């Protein structure tokens, strides 16, 4: 893997600060790896994006397995590192000394304190539980003072929703503070994929998130293809890019129908839901399933999009375009809706930069983070498209970004269909067994999805790390709600469209 710099653990903080350049180079990921089977210790990878050079720069440091497992926390100088460091502590037992919030992140109260599931000696089948009376207590962070009270929400919710516990500190109706406890249904997918071939792991990767099957699979396959040293044919690149934009369109339509659910705007909910269903049925015609699974494979794609399906895409998107225009008109003309979304749930530009936010959440706060522009993959370098941004950072801005990005995606799909109609290259190339490590990235509807894959000498997965788009954006939610009224929480939450399953990987 290129652009990896191995450094001493004592130099990690200084090197990271210098490489970040005050947020100019966003922290894309930070993760651990157990290298004891290689005769080494535990490694920490810190991954920065260098968009002006369209590459990643990775810092790697090692801690001895039988020595001091502490290192100087990066969080005080890089707020975006906060969750990563807490997860590394849970999964590997590497301690970020000086971390401002060292509470467990992934492992809840019932896990024994000395259990770290991503260490090699941790069994995939064991289900360890703390002994009676030894359960730890993870305290929620709340505000204190006269007239302040707590409002607990979840982890079991009234609707069909994944579990998450939210603890609000209130003064009247105003939210002063929010602490969120997540990771209730962690599936251990990274551990499950250890020892599997890329082909065996592919169905798991496709199911990390129901809304981001193409994005996760594409990032994973990019890493595998880099390790194998292959370049996939142009037609496969066109189809991958086309399906990525169709997946984005489907999700943006769904989000535009879901956000008004936070205020009970029934006509908009109905139109958005009906239009998303239309797109889901298109996806089923393209892939044989509603989630576009089974199309992207290491080395290319498993199926073609013929002339009939190309015409189907054009006709379906014409209908979707009309419905989205009607939806945007409804939003603009409903004064009460505008009153609820403007100046609500603000994330300021500097906050977005500090947290290395991605996707709509970042771009609505004028942080133009978009992997389609910042990295060369797929057909994006050959496409004409604009990175859509807004300045206000509120619910209205996040909604506006989605509406305009929908239009940009329509233009991209039209260009891609024109390319597909005249391209006659193959759908894939053979992937040979290879050892090595590399990364892949793709821009989902929520933002960039990052995958790191390390293959052993048998071509099997030694380590896989998945950073979904929701992961860097969840920490922004407690900041966005501050000062708003508690009835606005569902609206603010839906405007980010954060996924729980993406965390519980």
From TrEMBL:
SUPFAM superfamilies xref list: HydB/Nqo4-like, Nqo5-like
The UniProt record lists the NADH-quinone oxidoreductase subunit D domain at: 270-423, 431-505
Instruction: List, separated by semicolons, the cofactors it needs.
Output: Ni(2+); Fe cation
Name the positions where Mg(2+) binds: 190, 466
The way it spans or sits in the membrane comes to:
Peripheral membrane protein
Sorted alphabetically, the keyword list is: Iron, Magnesium, Metal-binding, NAD, Nickel, Oxidoreductase, Transport
> Where does the protein end up?
Cell membrane
InterPro entries, alphabetized: ComplexI_49kDa-like (IPR052197), NADH_Q_OxRdtase_suD (IPR001135), NADH_quin_OxRdtase_su_C/D-like (IPR037232), NADH_UbQ_OxRdtase_30kDa_su (IPR001268), NADH_UbQ_OxRdtase_CS (IPR020396), Ni-dep_hyd_lsu (IPR001501), NiFe-Hase_large (IPR029014)
PROSITE patterns attached here?
COMPLEX1_30K
Q: Which GO terms describe its molecular function?
A: NAD binding; NADH dehydrogenase (ubiquinone) activity; nickel cation binding; oxidoreductase activity, acting on NAD(P)H; quinone binding
Domain NADH:ubiquinone oxidoreductase 30kDa subunit residues, every copy: 9-121
Where, in this chain's numbering, is Ni(2+) bound? 209, 212, 499
Residues that, per the record, bind Fe cation: 212, 502
**Gene Ontology CC terms:** plasma membrane
- PANTHER family, from UniProt? FORMATE HYDROGENLYASE SUBUNIT 5-RELATED, HYDROGENASE-4 COMPONENT G
Indicate what this protein is called per its UniProt record: NADH-quinone oxidoreductase subunit F
């Amino acid at each position: 893997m290129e652009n990896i710099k191995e450094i001493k653990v004592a130099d990690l903080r200084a090197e990271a600060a210098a490489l970040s350049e005050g947020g100019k180079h966003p922290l894309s990921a930070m993760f651990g790896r157990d290298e004891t089977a290689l005769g080494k210790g535990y490694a920490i990878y810190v991954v920065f994006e260098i968009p002006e050079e369209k590459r990643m720069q990775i810092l790697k440091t090692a801690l001895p397995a039988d020595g001091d497992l502490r290192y100087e926390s990066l969080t005080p100088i890089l707020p975006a590192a906060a969750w990563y460091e807490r997860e590394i502590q849970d999964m590997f037992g590497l301690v970020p000394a000086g971390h401002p919030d060292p509470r467990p992140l992934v492992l809840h109260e019932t896990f024994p304190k000395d259990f770290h599931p991503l260490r090699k000696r941790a069994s995939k089948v064991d289900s360890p539980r703390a002994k009676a009376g030894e359960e730890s207590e993870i305290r929620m962070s709340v505000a204190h003072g006269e007239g302040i009270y707590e409002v607990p929400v979840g982890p079991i919710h009234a609707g069909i929703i994944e579990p998450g516990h939210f603890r609000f500190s209130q003064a009247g109706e105003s939210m002063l503070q929010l602490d969120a406890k997540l990771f209730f249904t962690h599936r251990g997918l990274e551990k499950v994929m250890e020892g599997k071939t890329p082909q065996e792991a592919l169905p798991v990767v496709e199911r990390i998130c129901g809304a981001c099957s193409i994005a996760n699979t594409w990032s994973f396959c990019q890493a595998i293809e880099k390790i194998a040293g292959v370049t996939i044919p142009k037609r496969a690149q066109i189809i991958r890019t086309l399906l990525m934009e169709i997946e984005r369109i489907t999700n943006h339509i769904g989000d535009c129908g879901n956000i008004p659910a936070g205020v009970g705007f029934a006509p908009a909910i109905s139109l958005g839901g009906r239009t998303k269903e239309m797109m889901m049925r298109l996806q089923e015609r393209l892939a044989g399933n509603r989630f576009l699974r089974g199309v992207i494979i290491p080395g290319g794609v498993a199926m073609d999009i013929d002339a009939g399906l190309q015409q189907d895409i054009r006709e379906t998107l014409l209908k979707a375009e009309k419905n989205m225009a009607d939806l945007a008109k409804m939003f603009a003309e409903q004064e009460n809706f505008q009153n609820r979304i403007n100046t609500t749930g603000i994330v300021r530009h500097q906050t977005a930069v500090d947290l290395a936010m991605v996707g709509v959440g970042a771009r609505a706060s004028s942080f133009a983070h978009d992997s389609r522009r910042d990295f060369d993959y797929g057909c994006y370098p050959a496409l004409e498209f604009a990175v859509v941004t807004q300045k206000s950072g509120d619910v209205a801005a996040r909604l506006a970004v989605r509406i305009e990005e929908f239009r940009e995606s329509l233009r991209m799909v039209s260009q891609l269909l024109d390319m597909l109609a005249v391209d006659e290259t193959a759908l894939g190339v053979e992937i040979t067994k290879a050892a090595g490590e590399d990364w892949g990235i793709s821009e989902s509807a929520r933002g960039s999805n990052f995958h790191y894959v390390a293959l052993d000498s048998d071509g099997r997965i030694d380590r896989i790390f998945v950073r979904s788009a929701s992961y860097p954006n969840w920490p922004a939610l407690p900041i966005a709600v501050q000062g708003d009224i508690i009835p606005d929480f569902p609206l603010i939450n839906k405007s980010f469209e954060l996924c729980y399953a993406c965390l519980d990987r």
